[in-house]
Amino acid sequence: MTPFATLSNASSVSWDAIPQKTPENMCSSIAEAMANGARICSFFGLPSDNSISLNSGSKTIELVAVLAHDTEDALSVIRSMPFSGSFPSLTPDHPQAHLFERLIFEEHGLTPTGHPWLKPVRKTETNAPRNSPFFEVAGSEIHEVAVGPVHAGIIEPGHFRFQCTGEKVHHLEIALGYQHRGIEAALTGGPFPSGIKQIEALAGDTSVAHTTAYATNLEVLSGTEAPLQAQWVRAIALELERLANHTGDIGALANDVAFLPTSSACGRIRGDFLNLTALICGNRFGRSLVTPGGCRYDLEPERACRLRERLLVSLSEVEQAARWLWESSSSRARFERIGTLTPDDAARMGMVGPAVRACGLVRDVRFDHPAGWHRFAQIPVSVWPDGDVQARARVRWLEIRQSGEFLKEQLAAAPGGPLITPMPPLMPDTLAVTLVEGWRGEVCHVAITDHQGRLRTCKVTDPSFHNWTGLALAMRNQAISDFPICNKSFNLSYCGFDL
Amino acid sequence: MSTFDVLFHRIQTGCETIAYPDGPAPALPDRHGGALQLDSTRCMDTCHACMDICPTQAIRRTRENGIELDLGRCLFCGSCVEVCPTQAITPTNNHRMAVRKKDDLILGSGARSQLRLAEDLGSRLIALLGRSIRLRQVSAGGCNACEADVNVLGTIGWDLGRFGIQFVASPRHADGILITGPVSKAMELALRKTWDAIPEPKIAIAVGSCAISGGPFHANPETHAGADGIIPIDLYIPGCPPHPLTILDGLLRVLGKLKNSASEHAE
Lengths: 499, 267
Description:
The complex is a heterodimer of chains A (499) and B (267). Chain A has 499 residues and is an alpha+beta fold.
């Protein structure tokens, strides 16, 4: 008998139907499931309903974990009894839990006993994040390089600490939190009209994936479903978002090794893909497209036809620009066997998206846990075996091709019908989970309602939350001068991590 | 093989940089709408449909001026345009939106029905910075959309370098700062330090509704409501994110590089 409640992607389960365990039993059940191949999608604390317990007067917290069983198209949920104090850390055996446990520590003051590196994740103290002290490698030859928060370029802020001897990096600690805007707290008690707007700007290059996950959860919680036409528009916009960002990433990698033909071409083609999203909704980043209940802008046959024509041009251009890069031996020499991650490490860190598929692992929400339009239209999973910078670039290129094929096929397959459905009130005391394969990987939203059908929490896990540690591991024993290309090959989100 | 392919492609494609500002500006997407305008004489006294639907409370009713729409807080989602029963708020399809004073973004009655576009920096600063300006960009809680559309100005399609505008790595090399994001409290110190490190004279540009007003995050305790409480801002470029053309227009406008600014305004 499984100690979990089982559900599929984009579905809900009654709060009372989720098995409630002691923190110790909960953690051992999670560890057992993970030993059998499950991975953590989300793991968080939540102030219990009667948050002041009568006898002690102290706040009590319930832990909630959502696991994915990728080979079974199933998700499972477990929760703990309300408690305070400490719980056994999963991190020593299952390092993918490490940031989730640090977040539980930061947000609720619970101590994961045995966590090897317990400190806040994104807590702000007055006017800067509280992210020190940093891990230090000892030795007279060791020097430390500190970079950020303000970086040399038009990018988001974060802090990197390298422990080096000479050029060689022994350890990289990535300390974020500079982008923390308090989005999860602002969503609690909703849904509010401003909620979807905060979600759109949660990670502004992943608007479609995050708004789709958020809106789908609200639809599930209100017992309805977006009309098929809206699901179709969302699926198309999601692939356009992937095309734009993957193209930009290939260009940025080329730029970092000073291979300008591909860099210049991809910089422009990326904009052309963004303009295709703008053709649908007026905004290059898909703002105001997805809304709870459906979509606000339709892709009529005439518009779909125009989109298709422009798409074909951009696809052939990006194919050519990428070919220049693959044929350039000087670029390959910079990319191959640099920043290599083993499949074992990637799996143990619970990584997602192109970064994990570049280690040869088949892990893609669209394939493993299809929901929405992906129940009817599949996209083959793109993998590359080597785990290095080149592999991460190649996976993006394969995905550009697959997204292109998908769009060519789907643009002619509009289901028609209404675009939006009215939203009834949310069901009380229910948990809903939606996973969406954004361009960086798995976007996970967990929404839980209270007795009145208001949001008790809306827990967001951006793919970057799983993957930043992967970048730190990939940098071990690399030259610090290769950090820029390693970083670009992951291209993770700061604001998606910091929320 | 690849070298010849690249060269052949270059010769075949020719210059890919847009003709603007010497030639016509590229068209905005048809559903973009551009800046909004407000005709508050059309408003009915009892109607507050737009105020109810606005996700950022950008629209309010004042006793003196009636309905006001703050384009500094507006996300240009178009909800107010959709619900307005009397077409009081309408899109202009105009990409020009940059202003020098935050108040110039507030639409009201009469002459204030449209925003008041930015004047240039004045002859002294133009003489110093007009032909070559270096900017340090700081994202302070920005979501990477404004950052991306500032970055795009550096691509071959826009080629910001042809105007003498360049983004630099060090604030010591900069003549100004370009800020995106609402200024998360966690970035306040870093933003102040960057600003302090830029030598005088210097200018500050706020790009996007977050940097102007806090945007969708204006009420969150973890963020400030825009950059101007921390740094004096010389140019506000609204949008979520602003279209690259809107950003470029703002930069050229403030540097006095657009001819006939006055006639554009009257258009």
